[in-house]
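Q: Given only this backbone (106 positions), what sequence would you predict?
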């Protein structure tokens, strides 16, 4: 058990780091006014209309809003912009769709 606990902690830390890295690479967050914000995210690898992709992006919004002093928020608009699939520098086909969320702090 003593050996398993450090491995579990390391694995969980690694997952959080990957999520943070993806957030920084695939999204942009801006406070647009007092208590108002906007996040734009590329749907690459997560699918614009998948439950898993949406859950990930909502987690990013939660992280961003908390880091900017919002204890609670409301999404007022979600706009999907469709784009043709692209290939990354590594040749991997990605979803070129962009999703823009707008919201307010409560």
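A: Predicted residues:
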């Amino acid at each position: 058990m003593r050996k398993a606990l450090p491995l579990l902690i390391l694995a969980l830390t690694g997952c959080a780091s990957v999520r943070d890295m993806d957030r920084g690479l695939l999204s942009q967050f801006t406070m647009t006014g007092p208590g108002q914000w906007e996040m734009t995210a590329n749907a690459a690898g997560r699918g614009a209309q998948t439950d898993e992709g949406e859950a990930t992006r909502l987690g990013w919004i939660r992280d961003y809003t908390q880091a900017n002093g919002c204890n609670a928020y409301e999404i007022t608009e979600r706009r999907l912009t469709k784009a043709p699939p692209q290939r990354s520098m590594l040749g991997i086909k990605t979803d070129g769709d962009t999703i823009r969320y707008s919201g307010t702090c409560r």
